[in-house]
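#data-curation
PF: Archiving a pair of folding outputs for the training set. Convention for this channel: one message per protein, sequence first, structure tokens after, nothing in between. First:
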Amino acid sequence: MNEFEQNVQSKRNDAIDSGIGFVASFAFFTIMFFVAVVIQYVAS
């Protein structure tokens, strides 16, 4: 067993971190989409 397996810095579940990352990126691109739709609607 190597040193990093014995001395774990974070014991959090990786699935939770992955889910948060997915939701954050999804929310960012959703906001960008709606901003673009509003700009297109106002410009036309």
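PF: Second:
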Amino acid sequence: MPTLTRYIAVLVILASIAYGTMFALVTYVDPATRQMGYPISDDRFNR
């Protein structure tokens, strides 16, 4: 049974690290937003 407890503890620690990393990325990193627009030629619509 100690092996199962150790396995679960390692999984909890890894999940905590992943969650902390995602939380830090969401909190501290602002994505660069910009206007996206691409011209489309009329040939694609006149088929």
